[in-house]
Specification:
3-stranded antiparallel β-sheet; 4-stranded antiparallel β-sheet; mainly beta; single chain; 10 strands; about 55% strand
Amino acid sequence: SGLTFVTCSEDKTVRLWDIRGDQEICQYKPPTPNSSFTSVGVSLSGRLLLASSDDSSIHMWDVTGTHVGNLTGHDNRITQIAVAPAGFAIASSSWDNTVRVWGL
């Protein structure tokens, strides 16, 4: 809607913020305690949040805060993710010297 934004941090959280209310709407945490986050993206529908992690996976939540799964395949820390403009795929880069493209 253009009135919210998402952040991620090495404090092991992804946060959804409301610009109008100047407040945090929801906080998302990984299912394992060893995952800190390096990059974040939002699906085109705005209903799915994605966060790359130093545990070599991409974590996914619905906006209600439910962890809905992981994308795995990298062999080292994922440094960046980007959602394709059409919303059908994401790309991820990693310290394992690879770039992967994932269908959504």
